[in-house]
Amino acid sequence: MHQERQELNCLSKQESNFPYGQSSNPSPLVVPGQTIGVLGGGQLGRMIILEGRKLGYRFVVLDPVSDSPAGQVADEQIVGAYDSPVSMEQLCDKSDLVVYEFEDIDLDMVQMIETIKPLPQGSNLYWTKNRGHQRKILQDAQIPLAPCHVVTSKAQMLEAIEELQLPCVLKTLTGRDYGKGQWVIRTLDDPLPPVEIIEKGILVEKLVPYVKEISVIVARGISGEVEIYPPVMNIHRNQILHMTISPAPIKEGIRERAEQIAYQLVSQIQFVGVLAIQMFVLVDGTLLVNELSPRPHNSGHITMDSTNPCQFEQFVRAVTGLPLRKPVRKNTGIMVNLFGEHLDAFRDELTKLPSCAKVHWYGKSVARVGRKMGHINFVGDSLQDLLELVNEMPIWEPLSGQEWAAISAMANNQVEDKRLYA
């Protein structure tokens, strides 16, 4: 117990030290006082705007729903459809530069924007919208990933499952709705996707026996400079992120390898903005990349209170041409998502939260089960103390034995399946 506590707490002193390439910075595309247009009015846009305002930028948002989370904190919101040329022209007319907060948008509209105003993230969104193309990019960049096949018929699917051997996970190629579009197949009696979904194309992937999931947030500016945030650990419930732990409780060699993979990938694809790379840590310490998210990511929300700069300021710097800043962690942190089902319990506990709890509310008017309403960052010096504090909160279910085991597992040849405290 004492040794485990020491190992967990010493992790908070580790920083990213991989020697990333730097390029000389050109003049910014826009300067403070000018206006950034944001395509999408969700919580990511909201947090981008809140950080961008500190740098002196103004913001206009396009979203089909009035009073959107981002629109609430912007200088102006245009209420319009994402596939409307008229709405896009309005956004461009009011903006000096345009960014998007999510990738599931009409390619034609994004390409139209690029012909009118600077669009640093680019219009090459095809790989971000399709898991099959994403896997091809990872393979071309020689990034390790689980064996997989893209199939378009039930016969092909069964053939791929036979080749890869069960268990497998089946994923839709497009659409990233949280908790949807994935089927874990341990036996052929398990529910399979409907034929009409299979015929649109699905990814058949070997389900690897990982002990921990981590993610790395990496930023790349318009001049090619790169900054990488140290890995964090993620805990999912019902295929939706529940908790992020920073720093990830992993061995130093695994951390260095994760950062090397992130640098190798972002340099290969010439990406501009912020990219989240989710990875599996296998029992022997091997890393396999699982998913890419070409935007600020839920697992990076902990940086808002634990790291300077946070992922949202770094995103603004990357797309505007301001110099990137080396991430410096101020403390240890744990992020826990607040969903619609947590709303009543959260309100009951709001006045009882400790001073180390930093609440970030998204301004959504309707709460639903599984809908992200906000998050809480818990920050301090001791990861062990924070874990115990968060686990005692009556807002959400406490950590299961399997989740505790994943946290304590250091993925160093063998995993000890025991809790962090007696």
UniProtKB/TrEMBL annotation:
ATP binds at residues 131, 171, 205-208, 213, 236, 290-291. It catalyses: 5-amino-1-(5-phospho-beta-D-ribosyl)imidazole + hydrogencarbonate + ATP = 5-carboxyamino-1-(5-phospho-D-ribosyl)imidazole + ADP + phosphate + 2 H(+). Residues 135-320 form the ATP-grasp domain. Keywords: ATP-binding, Ligase, Nucleotide-binding, Purine biosynthesis. Coiled coil: none annotated. Its EC number is 6.3.4.18. Catalyzes the ATP-dependent conversion of 5-aminoimidazole ribonucleotide (AIR) and HCO(3)- to N5-carboxyaminoimidazole ribonucleotide (N5-CAIR). Catalyzes the ATP-dependent conversion of 5-aminoimidazole ribonucleotide (AIR) and HCO(3)(-) to N5-carboxyaminoimidazole ribonucleotide (N5-CAIR). Belongs to the PurK/PurT family. This is N5-carboxyaminoimidazole ribonucleotide synthase. It comes from Croceifilum oryzae. The lineage of its organism: Bacteria, Bacillati, Bacillota, Bacilli, Bacillales. The gene is purK.
